[in-house]
Design goal:
The chain contains 12 helices and no strands. It is mainly alpha-helical and 224 residues long. The protein has one domain. It is globular and about 40 Å long.
C-alpha cells in the first residue's frame, strides 16, 4: 500500500529531496487510487504548495507545528497516555509488532511516531494495518482538527490518513477533543515543563527534545 508510504514521507522533516520528488509521490497516490474524492484533491493541492515553498520556510513551519508543544505532536501515545506508566508498555507492544515485519526501531526513535506507523502499515496486510490505523484514527483526526484551525496544509495529510482508515468518527467528538487542547506555551521554561517526563522515562527522547532531523523513518531489514 504505497499511499501510506507517501503520507509517511509528507509528515517527515522537510528536505530538498522530498520537494524534488513530489511529482512522483503524487503519481503514486493517483495510480494506487486508495484515496479518492475531496481528501485526495485537498492533499494534492497541499503537495503542490509544499513543492513550491522555500525549503527554509517549510522547515520552520514544520518545527513550529510539530516540535514546539504537544498539540500537534506526531508521537501518538503522548496524546493517549501522556505521562502515564501505560505509555511504556504500549511502546514495547507496538515495537514488537514492527519486528514481525522486519522493522527495527533505531536509537532516538519511538514506535508511536506517526510516519513510522504509516511505514509499518504500508507493508502489512490490509486487515492488520488498517486495524491499527482505525484504532489510531480518533487521535489523528483530533491532531488534524487542530492543524486545520491553524490553517496548516498538514491538516490535509491527517484527513487523508483518517479517510484511508475507514474509521467512523463523530466530528462533534473530534471538535470537543480539539477544544480541550493544552494552552499555548509562551516561554522556554513553560515548554520545558510541558515536556517533562516522569522518572520512568528518563533518557527517552520525545518530539519536544529531539532535533527535527534526528527522527528518520526506520526501514525494514533489507529495505522496503
Amino acid at each position: 500500500m504505497r499511499s501510506f508510504r507517501v503520507l509517511a514521507h509528507l509528515l517527515a522533516y522537510p528536505e530538498a529531496e522530498l520537494q524534488t520528488h513530489m511529482g512522483e509521490l503524487k503519481t503514486a497516490l493517483t495510480d494506487e487510487a486508495l484515496l479518492k474524492g475531496k481528501p485526495l484533491k485537498n492533499l494534492l493541492g497541499f503537495m503542490d504548495e509544499f513543492a513550491a515553498m522555500d525549503l527554509w520556510v517549510a522547515q520552520e513551519e514544520y518545527v513550529e507545528l510539530f516540535d514546539r508543544g504537544r498539540a500537534h505532536c506526531l508521537h501518538l501515545f503522548e496524546h493517549v497516555h501522556g505521562e502515564s506508566r501505560f505509555r511504556g508498555q504500549a511502546m514495547i507492544e507496538l515495537a514488537e509488532r514492527y519486528k514481525t515485519k522486519g522493522i527495527e526501531i533505531g536509537t532516538g526513535e519511538l514506535p508511536d511516531y506517526l510516519p513510522l506507523m504509516l511505514e509499518f502499515i504500508s507493508i502489512s496486510g490490509a486487515d492488520e494495518g488498517l486495524d491499527l490505523l482505525e484504532q489510531a484514527a480518533p487521535v489523528i483526526a483530533t491532531i488534524g482538527e487542530k492543524l486545520k484551525r491553524q490553517k496548516s496544509g498538514y491538516s490535509t495529510v491527517m484527513a487523508a490518513i483518517v479517510a484511508l482508515s475507514g474509521a467512523k468518527i463523530s466530528q462533534t467528538d473530534i471538535q470537543k477533543a480539539a477544544d480541550a487542547a493544552l494552552p499555548d506555551i509562551k516561554t522556554l521554561d513553560e515548554l520545558d515543563e510541558q515536556w517533562k517526563e516522569p522518572e520512568a522515562f528518563t533518557g527517552a527522547p520525545d518530539c519536544g527534545t529531539c532535533e527535527p532531523n534526528e527522527t528518520p523513518i526506520a526501514q525494514p531489514n533489507g529495505g522496503m
